[in-house]
Amino acid sequence: MGAAGMAVSRHGALRPSWRVQASRRNRDGLVVFCPCRSEAGSPLAVSSPPRREEKGVLGLKVVVGLSGASGAIFGIRLLDITRSLPEVETHLVISRAARLTIVQETDYSVAQVQALADISHEPEDVGASIASGSFPSSGMVVIPCSMKTLSAIATGFCADLLTRAADVTLKEGRPLILVVRETPLHLGHLRRMVEAAEVGAVIFPLVPAFYTRPLTLQDMVDQTVGRILARLGIPNGYYHEWKGT
Questions:
Q1: Cα(172)–Cα(167) distance, integer angstroms
Q2: Domain boundaries in the chain?
Q3: Cβ contact 156:167 at 8 Å
Q4: Measuring CA to CA, which residue among 78, 9, 5, 109 is closest to residue 50?
Q5: Which CATH class for the 51-231 domain?
Q6: Between 235 and 12, where is the model more confident?
Q7: Which of 96, 116, 99 is nearest to 35 (CA)?
Q8: What's the pTM value of the predicted model, to 2 decimals?
Q9: 141 pairs with which residues across the strands?
Q10: Could you count the other beta carbons within 10 Å of the beta carbon of residue 24?
Q11: How do residues 165-195 score in pLDDT, each as one tens digit?
Q12: DSSP of 160-197, one letter per residue?
């Protein structure tokens, strides 16, 4: 990423695919998730993504925000999946706190995560396209969503581009999904979530589903991300629909 406000194109970039088997412990003994690597130890390159002019042909422009809550891999996986969907164009904002979380919890660099999006915006660039209601997005997801970010969105406190883009999404009547990652929840958290829901946000906690009988952590991540995409109206094969007993 260059100067503030400069958009980053992902074309020609390496795409580190995440797998649950690709993990290690850092110097503090914590498990971190890693990009898949070749036998030589470098990140695996993949086929080129759809050309820019082929992206978003159905008008599906989705704003993705990553805040500083734990669970950065959920946001990364969502970007990884949408990267291969030619009908979806993603606009990414990574908060300053999220940049720390990405490095702490995964082996991805911030630049690698930015490269998964079609366009990446700096969090201070409140003049970016996604800060305006005239930008024709199909919705926005904040994944993961910290309680600080949720509180700002619930009260209309637009301190940066992420919260401004969320506020724009709400005022234009578009879907806003807040993938909340916090536990336990005190009364203040619960009240802010009610307030966010009252102004139109969808509260989507990171709660795993077990009716699918997941075998790996990646199964659980994919199920959640697949359902989030479906909630945005994006068909995908990453979650299992309940067929009844």
A1: 9
A2: 51-231
A3: yes
A4: 9
A5: alpha beta
A6: 235
A7: 116
A8: 0.80
A9: 64, 177
A10: 10
A11: 999 999 999 999 999 999 999 999 999 999 9
A12: SHHHHHHHHHHHTT--EEEEE--SS--HHHHHHHHHHH
